[in-house]
Design brief:
This protein is α/β, with parallel strands linked by helices. The protein folds into two domains: 108 residues, Rossmann fold; 176 residues, Rossmann fold, CATH 3.40.50. It is built from eleven helices and twelve strands. The strands form two sheets. The chain has a seven-stranded parallel sheet. Strands 2-1-3-4-5 form a five-stranded parallel sheet. The longest helix has 21 residues. The structure holds NADP nicotinamide-adenine-dinucleotide phosphate. The site of NADP nicotinamide-adenine-dinucleotide phosphate has 29 residues, from helix 7.
């Protein structure tokens, strides 16, 4: 199969509406043009400018379609009297006022599983890029520096201890991809699982044990800043972090201090406390690899996420039941 051709195993294409249009949706966030076209093939999408220009439209909105890096606060939910469903194109829903939506009997849906592989690929790719200094190596060759001196040595992944924070759908895909690299795996989470890897119920204890900490847990209040100065000190001067979870999981100011002062060796970050990343000290640090929250950002995966989001909307508006509601 050529790149950009997508086979969606086990999924029927979204059905055509029967007997008239589906209700209107409010779009919150910027979507790739191809993804927006998928939604527009079945739904009328309004944006916040449409509602400002024609406030009467507010009453016609029955659903919100969004992405996981945008917020759906309680105030927005309250402004839409006909709102029945919030559909996010992503698995994380920490930006949605979930309890408030539930109180108002508004269904919230996400797109689990279809993005696991893409996020896991990015996590492994960023880890290797960090250890082998790939961005620097590229710049080195382009600048002609290779003709002057050899490139500094990198660090091997083989033989390292890797700890996964959040061994869920994505965490397990990361673990499976790391096994062939001959690493020693462990994981931190609230529950011990039936897997062959060591479980830690203390994050500082796992950080002390490992060389690499991979974050793949949800964001939100329960995991806010669980990676802090203590955990970073335990990880130590040879330790590195890969964060494909949420920026909120890491105390970013503690992380900057640790990176700038040799408390840890490096970090590969796809997510940040504030996105897009503004003028952060992270941008000046040489021992960091930065990505603009692209865990699921492949043509194939974004298309599958949109298909699942659309299946949720179609099923909900037809039957009252969503396909993958947030539990
Ligand atoms: P999942 O299947 O629900 O897995 C979450 C894992 O985190 C579970 O193993 C859970 O284990 C653990 N966990 C939950 N709460 C925890 C806590 N308070 N402390 C420690 N561990 C906790 O979710 P998933 O589908 O793998 O997605 C995980 C997250 O990845 C998402 O929520 C999202 O934030 C992030 N994500 C990022 C991108 C990106 O573009 N970078 C894309 C997709 C998803 P226990 O229940 O045993 O604690």
């Amino acid at each position: 199969m050529k790149m950009n051709e997508t086979a969606v195993a086990g999924q029927e294409p979204a059905e055509q509406p029967v007997g008239g249009e589906f209700p209107k949706l409010l779009k919150i966030g910027v979507f790739p043009a191809s993804v927006e076209a998928q939604f527009r093939s079945l739904f009328t999408l309004l944006d916040e400018d449409d509602l400002r220009n024609d406030p009467a439209q507010v009453a016609s909105v029955a659903g919100i379609v969004t992405r996981s890096n945008y917020r759906i606060p309680a105030e927005l939910i309250d402004r839409l009297p006909g709102l029945r469903i919030i559909t996010t194109n992503g698995v994380g829903y920490d930006g949605i006022a979930l309890d408030h939506a539930r109180q108002k009997n508004i269904v919230v849906t996400n797109t689990p599983d279809v993005l696991n592989k893409a996020v896991a690929e990015l996590a492994v790719g960023m880890l290797l890029a960090l250890l082998r200094k790939l961005p620097e190596a590229d710049g080195f060759v382009r600048a002609g520096a290779w003709e002057e001196s050899p490139f500094p040595l990198g660090t091997s992944l083989a033989g390292k201890r890797v700890g996964i924070v959040g061994l869920g759908r994505i965490g397990k895909e990361i673990a499976q991809r790391l096994v062939p690299f001959e690493v020693d795996l462990s994981y931190f989470g609230r529950a011990r699982q039936a897997v062959p890897w060591r479980h830690f119920d203390s994050l500082p204890a796992m950080a002390r044990h490992v060389d690499v900490l991979v974050l793949s847990c949800p964001g939100g209040a329960a995991t806010r800043h669980i990676v802090d100065a203590t955990v970073l000190r335990e990880l130590g001067p040879d330790g590195v972090i890969v964060n494909v979870a949420r920026g909120s999981v890491v105390n970013e100011s503690d992380l900057c201090h640790a990176l700038a002062n040799g408390i840890i060796q490096g970090a590969a970050l796809d997510v940040f406390e504030s996105e897009p990343l503004g003028p952060s000290p992270l941008r000046q640090l040489p021992n960091v690899i930065l990505a603009p929250h692209i865990g699921s950002a492949t043509h194939e995966t974004r298309r599958q996420m949109a298909e699942l989001a659309i299946r949720n909307l179609v099923s909900f508006f037809r039957t009252g039941r969503a396909v993958t509601p947030v539990a």
